[in-house]
């Protein structure tokens, strides 16, 4: 990952040229993305493939809290930063994921990669986890989808027996040793707690090194938690030019060369999980 910093500088420079999505042209595809690994995958692996097909991919690095509104409001053709449970939470205002849910605003078009969520050492050592795991303090991400992932990981590893949810599926009545923290502050506040339960992308942004002795999400959740390309529901159904662009984007992210790029760049810390979700 020694070239990540240089790659990010390149992506940020390119993103600065695109202040808003210029998606009026039939051969321009505009996409909002988080900077790493999403924008790197798009710029270095997907963009060259689309260029061969006659498309110019314009990547804008955008705060993740703005990206779904950006696609829904037609500022961008697509976005790339989230997994399906988070997208469904945005689309339906419910924390309970439903495999058969019909998306109304923004829909998942393709799985691209999986970022395993894992436990990182904070003020306590990784070697002490087994002996103090039930009494240790934990920080977990405050957005509901990642909160549920973190709690499931803690249950799977004997930290908690279970947790309660309300009628909408939101966790409630958390024990006092678990604190919800905004994702932007997780790395900065990590050493205030014994352990931190962090999404992989958050840890990468903070240059944290994973300790493989600490628990990590199992591969059986990779399909559901894969980060997706998301697109506008109504526009995909009504605009043939837009539909063609999204289909081309999906074809590109499913290319074997994209999986090779992900594997070579992140050495299995991030995993390719490519699958079309178009119906």
Could you explain how this protein is built, in words?
The protein folds into two domains: 4-115 and 221-276, D-Maltodextrin-Binding Protein, domain 2 (3-Layer(aba) Sandwich); 118-216, D-Maltodextrin-Binding Protein, domain 2, CATH 3.40.190.10. It is 38% helix and 22% strand. It has eleven helices and twelve strands. The strands form three sheets. It has a six-stranded mixed beta sheet with strand order 2-1-3-11-4-12, with helices on both faces. It has a four-stranded mixed beta sheet with strand order 5-10-6-9. A two-stranded antiparallel ribbon has the order 7-8. Helix 2 (35-52) links the parallel strand 1 (28-33) and strand 2. Helix 2 (35-52) packs across helix 10 (240-253). The longest helix has 18 residues, at 35-52. The two termini are 36 Å apart.
Q: Tell me about the biggest sheet?
A: 6 strands, mixed
CATH superfamily descriptor of the largest domain: Periplasmic binding protein-like II
User: For the CA atoms, what is the radius of gyration?
Assistant: 19 Å
* SSE sequence, one letter per element: HEHEHEHEEHEHEEEEHHEHHHE
Instruction: Kindly estimate the percentage of residues that lie in beta strands according to DSSP.
Output: 15-25%
Quote the average pLDDT: 91
Tell me the count of domains: 2
Cα end-to-end separation: 36 Å
Contiguous uncertain segments of 5+ residues? 1-19
CA-based shape? globular
SS-derived structural category:
alpha/beta
Query: What's the total number of strands?
Result: 12
CATH topology of the largest domain: D-Maltodextrin-Binding Protein, domain 2
- Percent helix, as a range, is 25-40%
């Amino acid at each position: 990952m020694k070239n990540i910093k240089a790659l990010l500088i390149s992506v940020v420079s390119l993103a600065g040229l695109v202040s808003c999505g210029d998606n009026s042209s039939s051969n321009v595809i505009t996409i909002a993305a988080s900077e790493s690994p999403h924008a790197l995958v798009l710029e270095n692996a997907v963009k060259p493939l689309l260029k061969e097909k006659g498309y110019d991919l314009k990547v804008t690095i955008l705060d993740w809290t703005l990206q779904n509104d950006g696609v829904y409001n037609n500022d961008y053709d697509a976005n790339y930063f989230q997994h399906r449970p988070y997208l469904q939470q945005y689309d339906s205002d419910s924390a309970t994921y439903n495999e058969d849910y019909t998306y109304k605003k923004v829909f998942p078009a393709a799985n691209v990669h999986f970022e395993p969520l894992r436990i990182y050492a904070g003020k306590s050592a990784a070697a002490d986890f087994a002996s103090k795991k039930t009494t240790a303090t934990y920080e977990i991400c405050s957005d509901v989808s990642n909160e549920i992932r973190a709690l499931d990981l803690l249950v799977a590893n004997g930290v908690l027996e279970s947790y309660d949810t309300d009628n909408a599926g939101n966790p409630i009545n958390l024990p006092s040793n678990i604190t919800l923290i905004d994702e932007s502050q997780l790395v900065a506040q990590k050493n205030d707690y014994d352990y931190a339960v962090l999404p992989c992308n958050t840890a990468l942004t903070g240059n944290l090194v994973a300790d493989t002795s600490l628990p990590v999400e199992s591969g059986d959740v990779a399909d559901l938690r894969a980060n997706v390309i998301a697109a506008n529901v109504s526009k995909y159904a009504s605009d043939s030019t837009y539909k063609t662009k999204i289909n081309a984007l999906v074809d590109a992210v499913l290319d074997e060369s994209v999986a090779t790029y992900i594997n070579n760049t992140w050495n299995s810390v991030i995993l390719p999980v490519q699958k079309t979700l178009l119906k």
